[in-house]
Design a protein that fits this description.
By secondary structure, the chain is mainly alpha-helical. It has one domain (16-89). Helix content is 51%, strand content 11%.
Amino acid sequence: MSSVKIGNRGQLTIPSEYRKELGIEKGDVINVMKVGEVLVLTRKQVIGDTIADKMEYVMKKKGLTLQDLVSNLKEQRRKYNRETKKLSLN
């Protein structure tokens, strides 16, 4: 999992390895969808039910629940906050 910092106008940079893997190039339109407390970015227009079905399939395949994702997100936030605090002290 990569972390990115949100810029002044809410902008973020998608890590280059993800852009390369997904074929995302300058000028491409990225759709943003909120699913619970998670933002889902997609390269093309996708209907909400389609995203939900795909996410459900992948989560079942990996044995994950929505609570697993939320718990992991909370842990990632704690880790980020600890790292940010360390950096600001230096």
